[in-house]
Design a protein that fits this description.
about 375 residues; mainly beta; seven-stranded mixed beta sheet; six-stranded mixed beta sheet; 28 strands; about 15% helix; elongated; disordered N terminus
Length: about 375
């Protein structure tokens, strides 16, 4: 059922549903409210929050945006019933049982000044206003330190610095937040801390036009850089972000670690270009180039590699022994092959002799033949 109430003090109000239940209200110190974009926001009524007026004594409540003209009225309450005004559809605004204005979905256009008029029972109208600003929280709750390897803890990371480095730059950033945060660098040491002079930059960030304005448009990016003149093993640094967008403050702890040069790795194969003189009066270069090259390791494994330069992996004493034994092995192999060949020939002749048949002894009678 639609009910219409008229009072000479208040504008005409259409009332269609009861007041909603209470909600959580968080006010800033200076009275400015920061509402998160894309979330449900609450604009508090200071007179009720401070209990200057009891919620049970309120007969009527009106919320406006920008001014207190009739066309600026957003929503109203009268004797327990709430209704949107000026053609605003239901579900955009609401009033809870503390008479706070509820914004169901905070957008960039919600920033501004909200005015209210409150009529206590048997008293005159009270008026007031609340400043509302947007807040955009960072996607990562901690400052990001450039070139810092994140540790197991999300707010702790490590930066590796050359052992001979005299100056090192540390830069931390906080991107796409609103309002802009303040970044500062602090050096921690045993028994205390020191705030360092940092170079800070703040720039606005406007995402492409196709990005929803209710989410990340008109945000800020802040960076802060310092120079570390020397790296002490017992020193740690902290980048701290301070501001409404990060819930007062948040920090990232940075640990600097010196990197020391490692000795060059040496393989088991030694390269030598010197000439070794052996007892056989032959001079051998340990690097031999062959058309078909065999690569040897110390266990005697051989792999054929075409056209490569092979560097011998044997010591000089081992080379001498190999060159002395090789002719003897070749001679022995030659004698063995000769003996085998002679033996085969002899066996062949003997076999042919055994299998040969004797010619028959035929006698001819010459007289008969004539």
């Amino acid at each position: 059922m639609w009910l219409t109430f008229w009072d000479s003090t208040y504008p005409t109000v259409w009332l269609r549903r009861p007041i909603s239940k209470g909600g959580f209200v968080q006010a800033n110190a200076d009275g400015t409210m920061f509402l998160e974009r894309g979330q449900r926001g609450i604009v508090p009524c200071p007179l009720v929050i401070s209990r200057q007026i009891s919620p049970g004594d309120v007969d009527a409540m009106y919320w406006y945006y920008g001014s207190t003209s009739g066309t600026s009225l957003l929503i109203s309450y009268f004797l327990g019933w709430v209704a949107p005004q000026n053609g605003i559809p239901e579900g955009v605004y609401d009033i809870d049982n503390e008479f706070n204005l509820i914004i169901e979905n905070v957008t960039a256009s919600c920033e501004g000044t909200y005015y209210f008029q409150l009529k206590p029972r048997l008293k005159i109208i009270e008026e007031g206003q609340v400043e509302v600003r947007n807040k955009v929280s960072p996607s990562r709750p901690y400052p990001t330190v450039i070139g810092c390897n994140q540790d197991h803890d999300a707010n702790t990371c490590e930066v590796r610095v050359r052992h001979d480095s005299t100056v090192h730059n540390l830069t931390c950033v906080m991107e796409q937040v609103k309002p802009a945060v303040e970044l500062r660098w602090i050096r921690l040491f045993l028994g205390g801390k020191t705030e360092l002079n940092a170079y800070r930059t703040v720039r606005p960030v406007v995402l492409p036009a196709y990005t929803s304005s209710s989410l990340r448009n008109n945000t800020y990016s802040t960076s802060a850089s310092i120079q570390v003149p020397s790296v002490d093993d017992d020193a740690e640094y902290v980048c701290e972000a301070v501001g409404v967008a990060v819930g007062n403050s948040t920090r990232t702890r940075v640990r600097l670690t010196k990197t020391h040069p490692t000795p060059a790795a040496h393989g088991t194969t030694a390269t030598r270009d010197t000439m070794a003189t052996h007892d056989t009066t032959e001079s051998h270069d340990t690097t031999a180039t062959r058309d078909t090259t065999a690569t040897h390791d110390k266990t005697g494994t051989t792999s054929a590699l075409d056209g490569e330069v092979v560097r011998t992996d044997y010591s000089i004493g081992t080379q001498t022994t190999v060159f002395m034994i090789a002719p003897m092995v070749i001679s022995s192999m030659s004698l063995l092959c000769s003996a085998v060949c002679m033996s085969c020939v002899c066996m062949l002749f003997r076999r042919q002799k055994d299998t040969a048949k004797p010619m028959p002894n035929v006698k001819y009678d010459i007289s008969r033949a004539s």
